[in-house]
Amino acid sequence: MNALLQQTNRIASRILETITVLLMVGLTVIVIVAVIARLMGQSFSWYDEVAAIALAWITYYGSALAALHRRHIGFDTVLLAIPGRYRMLAVLIGEGLVLLFFILMARAGLQVLEVLEGDSLTSLPWVPVQLTQSVIPIGAVLFVICQLLSLPNYWSKTAQGISLEHAEIEEEVETELEKNKERV
Predict the structure, then answer these.
(1) CB atoms within 10 A of CB 50
(2) How far is residue 153's CA from residue 164's CA, in Å, rounded to a whole number?
(3) Could you point out which of 65, 101, 107, 141 has its C-alpha 20 to 30 Å from the C-alpha of 72?
(4) Helices 2-39 and 47-68, interaxial angle, to 10°?
């Protein structure tokens, strides 16, 4: 089971990384092309609207990726200071609140899509606003999935009193030390 979960996490991570990188490259290209066009005396009417939408998409997909790797702001030091049984209760409450928030956000996102039915972008009237705003429920569902995929490891580490933040820092230090051994 653990190997299957790790494999699923790796696949989800690769997919989300690819989507996020493609969105970032796309946004970069849009901005560069728009700047060059302005320097040449032309201006795209769609630039601002599309760039803002791309930035929102990067935020939602990047947020899901951060949830998968537990890279969001946390309070490991405070959490680990709580005695064992109460610590795990705090984890349950915290995870429950996060999941509830994103489930409600997905539901609200679907309601927003219903309201926006038939609307299109101002600068690109052939693009439905529902398409651009679909990232709200999709991003929320992805966040929930990623949070659940990363929960078993987080639960285990927290129960053992291991800080994910400190473990990450120690891993980076060890990696750098290994790199430096080869240079000496």
Answers:
(1) 19
(2) 10
(3) 107
(4) 160
How does pLDDT run across 41-71, given as a tens digit for each residue?
888 889 889 999 999 999 999 999 999 999 8
Beta bridge partners of 120: 128
Question: Rounded to an integer, what distance in angstroms lies between the CA atom of residue 27 and that of residue 51?
Answer: 6
Output phi, psi for 123, to 5 deg. Answer: -85, -20
Q: Is 140 exposed, middle or buried (0-12, 13-18, 19+ CB in 10 A)?
A: buried
Residue pLDDT, tens place only, 16-49 = 999 999 999 999 999 999 999 999 988 888 988 9
Residue 156: CA atoms inside 13 Å, Cβ hemisphere, count? 6
- The three-state secondary structure class of 162 is coil
Report phi then psi at 120, rounded to 5. -135, 165
Residues in Cβ contact with 157 at an 8 Å cutoff, skipping those fewer than 6 apart: 163, 164, 167
Q: Which residue has the tokens 């996490």?
A: 9
Per the CB < 8 A criterion, the answer to whether 128 and 180 are in contact is: no
Write out the two tokens for 181.
């051994």
Closest by Cα among 146, 158, 120 to 12: 146
Residue holding tokens 């769609």? 46
If phi > 0 it is left, if psi is from -120 to 50 it is alpha, else beta; for residue 41 that is: left
